[in-house]
Amino acid sequence: MGAxxxxxxxxxxxxxxxxxxxxxxxxxxxxxxxGTRSPTRDFYGRATEVGEHALHVQxxxxxxxxxDITVGSKDLYYPAxxxxxxxxxxxxxxxxxxxxxDALLQxxxxxxxxxxxxxxxxxxxxxxxxxxxxxxxxxEVFPDDSLARExxxxxxxxxxxPHFVVSGKKP
Length: 171
Fold this sequence. Notes:
Blueprint: H1 3-12, E1 19-26, E2 29-41, E3 47-57, E4 60-65, E5 68-72, H2 100-108, E6 116-123, E7 129-133, E8 137-142, E9 150-155, E10 164-167
């Protein structure tokens, strides 16, 4: 195992046993919430909750269940009720109109769905990883460009603890 793989595995191990209970977004960045919920205020001053730990993902990701993709990062760019046999509406605005990613995530984390608790972490190459959850479900994150920008970070929103940040190769 390479040094980066080992660092990623060690950093993400803090999530084992924690429940994944939400995924929100800031523009196109996914913010996955794990563990105990804490009340806070969002950017606009509205009451909300954050997880004990959060994973902010700015690269490709997907949630798979039983070998099928339940939701993926690029679902953001399609209307909520999109049927791929139809052309994409020319006036669709993913940031303001209801989109497929938000709708699928809302269903995944709605009441009555099985709890998704982190059971296993597998660090891969080039900053990728897989988080195995209950109910034959996994969250997979895989940087998909060669740029030096940030791909993802793990943080504890209610503390001043340093963030664990993974970015692409340096020039």
